[in-house]
Amino acid sequence: xxxxxxxxxxxxxxxxxxxxxxxxxxxxxxxxxxxxxxxxxxxxxxxxxxxxxxxxxxxxxxxxxxxxxxxxxxxxxxxxxxxxxxxxxxxxxxxxxxxxxxxxxxxxxxxxxxxxxxxxxxxxxxxxxxxxxxxxxxxxxxxxxxxxxxxxxxxxxxxxxxxxxxxxxxxxxxxxxxxxxxxxxxxxxxxxxxxxxxxxxxxxxxxxxxxxxxxxxxxxxxxxxxxxxxxxxxxxxxxxxxxxxxxxxxxxxxxxxxxxxxxxxxxxxxxxxxxxxxxxxxxxxxxxxxxxxxxxxxx
Length: 299
Ligand code: CP
Ligand code: NVA
Prior knowledge:
Layout: H1 13-31, E1 43-48, H2 54-65, E2 69-73, H3 86-94, E3 99-103, H4 107-116, E4 121-123, H5 131-145, E5 152-156, H6 161-173, E6 176-180, H7 189-195, E7 199-201, H8 205-209, E8 214-217, H9 229-235, H10 243-246, E9 254-257, H11 269-272, H12 279-298
Parallel strand pairs: 1-2, 1-3, 3-4, 5-6, 5-8, 6-7, 8-9
The protein binds phosphoric acid mono(formamide)ester and norvaline (NVA).
Phosphoric acid mono(formamide)ester (CP) binds at residues 52-55, 125, 133, 258-259.
């Protein structure tokens, strides 16, 4: 069985920390243009059943820096969209490439894909998890503020895939995640109960934000939920991250968002474009943290 990265819990706490240390080294090499092409000829296939800017460009660039190559596949221009079973696609690609990244809808789909694959599979986002995002987010927090262990993080808004991955990160790295989400839009109950006191639901956004070291949000309607967008705009209206909400957090608190963002919905323009926001560094760290992940999986 190859080693997969489908959720953050595929890493131990010490592997997660080692990966973050390596990501910081790789970033410093990149800044001084000292990238080492230590994986010549290696290939990553990237299957995107949903849109992407950051995930695609960061993985593709990472493979170039490592001396390898990435291949983009979408349902529109591969046999995946014409009904070839995903297990067959996994088997075929395993005979050609060294690693496969999949962005898809149901998490069961990526699990089926991984079960049939003979090379490592990376979850590039499913409806349930976005583990790659949590590599970059924690790298970003730690390069600005030091170890995240023992810190307080507020998740404001939808209990979605990114929120679920935050719950796993809180449990692995030992920080406190305070979640404010409207009823009916809560994160995965099994993940919450597994995280125990590391992830707690709060009554409202203000309670979650109070005393936080980091405030995080995401879109109100994720990919695949476009038809719910109007209803969600009403339900989530009290969950916008505003300057007033940021003022309840610690004075040195940071703001993060995985992007793409909707200014005036989940976050006000003055917050995302303001001094406490680190969203551009966060997006940039996708490159370095995923390069560290690729090194780990390629061996
Ligand atoms: N944050 C993130 O995964 O962005 P993309 O959808 O652009 O890949
Ligand atoms: N929750 C969002 C994240 C996008 C990167 C979505 O799934 O669309």
